Batch of 2 targets.
Target 1
Amino acid sequence: MASALINVPSTARRGDIIEIKTLMSHIMETGFRHTVTGEVIPRNIITNFICRYNGDEVFRADLFPAFSANPFISFFTIATESGKFEFQWIGDNGFQETASASITVT
Amino acid sequence: MTKQSMAEPDRTTRRQFLATAGGAALGAVSLVHVGPARATPDTMKAAIRDIVNGAAVRPGKVKLDVPPLVENGNTVPLTVTVTSPMSDADHVVSIHIFNEKNPQPNVGNFYISPRAGRAQISTRIRLADTQTLTAIAKLSDGSFWSATADVVVTLAACTEEAT
């Protein structure tokens, strides 16, 4: 059920600085909350996010419980060549999701 | 004894609560008068020390955009921009965000390269209380630059009871 929203321009000119927006649906349970009966709700967050552009890592983030649920991250990169952006989210309890987006660079 | 008080034997009395609250208020007032330097909780300092590893952190170059007043601490939009040519010789290596009053001092670490073109990241974070946020950027020459922003939070995040 986990799903990603990715916003990458489909075309760009070589050398353009493009913005990439990503959103992954995830509860991001902090591990600091309690139920009404006083038990701690165990932490369940995404801890790492990586973006690769044609196999090269262009952006990486470490996430902490202070990230909002459904973590949104936006960043920039230079459009160098046509190809594929691959996104990877890694988290607690073996959470692992990937997504990709293509770009045509002219 | 009522049934309710037996279920919660250590429930504070109204008198205890008032005494504690009064003490806390006095404590808060005296903190404010310590001096112009902000009473930064030690955990945030320690977390920053872990990142900068003893190097000096200078104010400047970094811009931390966050609303000064947020209604809902569960999702606070935040943008960090670092002034940098982002060339191979002079670029931002990483951006780190810290807070004072959440249960944990770290918010996020972001690693970029000259391929970013622009040293700017945006995200949405949780804030448990009214507090000061700090953003620190590490440059390719090994220097650290920082910016701070004050945020007033009316509805706190992170620690409320789940319903």
Target 2
Amino acid sequence: MDVRSQIGMVFHLDKCIGCHTCSIACKNVWTDRPGTEYMWWNNVETKPGTGYPTRWEDQKAFKGGWETDGKSLQLKSTSKARIIPNIFHSPSMPSMDDYYEPWTYRYSDLFTAPEGDDQPTAVPISMVTGEPIAIESGPNFDDDLGGSAVYARNDPNLEALSPDQREQMFAIERLVFFYLPRICNHCLNPACVAACPSGALYKRGEDGIVLVNQQRCRAWRACVAACPYKKVFYNWNTGKSEKCILCYPRLETGQAPACFHSCVGRIRYLGNVLYDADRLTEIAKLPDHELVEAQRSILLDPNDPAVIEGARRNGIHESVIDSARRSPLWKFVKVWKIALPPHIEYRTFPMLFYVPPLLPVMSTNVGGKVKSDLDALFADTEKGRAPMEYMGKLFAAGNEGKLRYALKKQMAVRIARRHLTVGDVTKEEAERALAQADCTWDEADAIYRLTALANFDDRFVIPPSQREMAIEMLEDPHEHRSTAGFGFRDAPTRGA
Amino acid sequence: MNQGFQFFLFGVLPYLALAIFFLVTIQRYRQEKFSYSSLSSQLLENKKHFWGTVPFHYGILLVLAGHVVAFLIPRAVLAWNGTPWRLYVLESTALACGLLTFFGLVNVIVRRLTDAKTRKVTTPSDWIIYLLLAVQVTSGILVAYLHGWGSSWFASTVTPWLWSLVQLAPEPARLETLPLLAKVHIVNAWVLIGFFPFTRLVHVLVVPNPYLWRKPQLVVWNRPAPSSRTEV
């Protein structure tokens, strides 16, 4: 057993209102520099939809993630032999057209325009070339377009549905959509790290955050193609790859990352878990439908004496073990089992989990009043507008059982709360729902509290980073005195 | 050609170029490591990129390998060329690689000129490289075409001269009989080497060979690693 600590995340999709506040918080802090305008380390996409970059889930085209024949584990996009041809021209790399060409407006036109009969307009100009452009797409042009022929109909996850199911999903009275906020998953088995020819990408041992060493990156672009979630971006100006850093400078000082902190719906949870790094390669070779359970199985119980002993042996500080005990991630993923990883079939073992949305809750209008018997109020989860197959493809690698379990339990919690707060559901009905969902009154209460009431300290259990023990703390402070965050003095510019 | 000028071109320029090459690349690596990048523009334009960069890189690597072989083992090359068909095979392969390089380079330059986004990220030093490379590749192909059997005469003129440079006793006279085009090719090569450290060409020096033997995952610890950890 090789115990390591990993910071993980849970996004509760039922609470996401698709406001993009997270994206803007991230953009303002990290990606408003030349070359990064087109990057959205955090983006929110509407599902069903094509996402950002367009159709990123289509791994036949983008070749992201790992593949296995049960014996060996290989990257889809590259290998030690293929690195030679791939280095000149990366065959499965997306181009800027797959994201969008960033633009601004020439606002000076508004006051330099000659006098005329019309209002002057600010012409859109490309943030790459500075020339006027015709805007064709943007990072969130799919917003709310759940029935769109351009976006929703081209969602790669629809492959899991039969033609009939697809037609039903897009029937006007059944139209459905929900939001999927995405950041780097800081995977346990990151494909970007494994693909980098220069070894510039790495996983931090202490907290598992995946970073790009800007000094070592040589723009071979293998990471962009290898990441199945397309969350490593190429900065066309500096000639270096960049990605979500999980706001590690904030985490190290006990603050939540910008997108977490700013989340209006409070959908985001963050905490560390202990996991067994020894078993990673073994579970990565399992068949698709076993992967959700396999990933859960390597997350270790921080109350188990053997685990605590292993953690101590690996130099994990007591305070980090303690924060793993209080971690919301542990509760959502391991105890309640209502948070699921996105597209685990890519075999990178993402450490961002989603509580699948229970939408929509149906109600029936009778004579101007909401009909309030149990069946009318809470439709069976099976009758949800988004077919189980669709949601299962997105969150459980096709293992719909895991998805049903998560949805049923959430429904049972709602029914139990209805009994307690409104009272039009009988105790027997509530208990029946809980029993069917493998849930107890205590557990339902805990889920309700962490979902609906959670304050800052419940949502974000940030392990202390123990900087006083870090190697750089032992180095000469004068060497670091005037370096600017990046660890070197000069401003990062393109070329020599 | 003036004797003094000839001595400068073939007896001084190589040392000058090599001195600049080593001093600047090392200093740049130490102080400006961030600037070591291939500065790829594939993100901005993904289709013409293939037809430029792929033929260019394969072509130039093979041609360079040929030059290095003729420098290191001239006797073996001469022996190989002892039979006419083997000479023809070598010469035509070399010319084909040269033409492949030329084809790639033309595509690279056309792409840089015509695509607005890639033109935006093309710096003056890039244009200078393209000019030097165009001169180099064109003169090389013309030499191969007009002054045939270069694989043989290279081994008996240029190789001894290069070795004289290595032995710090330059003998520029060995190149006296070479045609002008070949001299242009040689001088331009040294200019290219001298200019190399100031450009994106430095990416050649950081070719990621460790990838071939490193483990797939890379974990960096901020604290000294305990011995019980395994590497994935």
